Amino acid sequence: MITVTIARRASDRRIASFAVEGHAQYAKPGKDIVCAGVSAVTVGTVNAIEALAGVQLPAVVKSGWVSSDIPEQADKAVEEKLQLQLESMVVMLDSIAQSYGKHVVIHEQLLQ
């Protein structure tokens, strides 16, 4: 199963970090559309943030694992772009989880 953890700051509910771990085991490796979809969404979001917001996320990417702590941005416009892309990632992952709930679960937590 793939577990997605989204950590939000309690003060403003902005995404402070995310972690995606595990394998869906929906199909054999190389043919698993659930793993492929989750990987495309998460890695694609990290790449899009760098390309579109100009922010290099401190991301860790390896087999069965993607995570990042999201640095707060002094520039409000950049922060808004960054958060919009992260929220988009959550919507896409939620769509996958709704269709393949036995293979993907999403948890959100509030940080103090």
UniProtKB/TrEMBL annotation:
SUPFAM superfamilies, per the entry: TM1457-like
Keyword Hydrolase: yes
MF annotations from Gene Ontology: peptidase activity
Family: Belongs to the Prp family.
Name the UniProt record assigns to this protein: Ribosomal processing cysteine protease Prp
PANTHER family cross-referenced by the UniProt entry: HYPOTHETICAL RIBOSOME-ASSOCIATED PROTEIN, RIBOSOMAL-PROCESSING CYSTEINE PROTEASE PRP
Pfam families named in the record: Peptidase_Prp
Keywords of the record: Hydrolase, Protease, Ribosome biogenesis, Thiol protease
Source superkingdom: Bacteria
GO biological process entries: proteolysis
InterPro entries from the UniProt entry: Peptidase_Prp, Peptidase_Prp_sf
